[in-house]
């Protein structure tokens, strides 16, 4: 059954595809190096991205997520849209500004991305995104909005974002870190000339990190579109992680006759306020696994058995910060 990205947003699929692991040779997902294999040339990566995008579209995925900092993700997405002959509006495309990719197509870079929420960065990166995605771009988000960056209090930035609304661009923000809920509640209050600026949020929610859930429910009740990311916790909830603390999760997945990543995706899809749940698949096989979550029954008793896995937000984000680029 079709549904929309918020009360007045475009029609989207329940499952979306994020290109964080497809647009650059290094990422923090466990086992990313094995997924990509030895050939990480731009040409090989573009071919791989197109393969996964084709598979996603065949299976009904209609939301695709990129960012300026995802290496060449926007370029790969743009070349796929053009080569397959898509017209604007046939799929929903979102991207983000606020980080600049700095790894120069290497995996062992000292810094892979640099955060900058200034007005200059917004203007530069918006122009870059529009140059690549053109009229396909329908959602533009602040990448990892935080109180520390001051972006939600920057009058010039907010005014420029409000102008995008008049161009037909939907404006949102993505969240990261232990204060996701507080930042979201602040964003719900943001107005420019009495008009709300944001109508969509992309947040980290998974069975280990649920703290933003109540705030997401509030945003949903206000008509916002809700996009969930990192629902497999960068691979911690996938089949590769053998940490003893997560053995109960793996055991429960086995009891359900499924894989851990499928159970993790199903948990996110079961949230009544979620508009889109992103798959971060780097291979067609991973995408196929994630798609199985759409048909996996997920009940309240099953969810209750997972509550013991919940980590304190500070603990979860501290662990995430130790994940290695590979």
TrEMBL record:
Gene3D superfamilies: NADP-dependent oxidoreductase domain. InterPro entries: AKR2_Oxidoreductase, NAD(P)_OxRdtase_dom_sf, NADP_OxRdtase_dom. Residues 46-299 form the NADP-dependent oxidoreductase domain. This is MxcA protein.
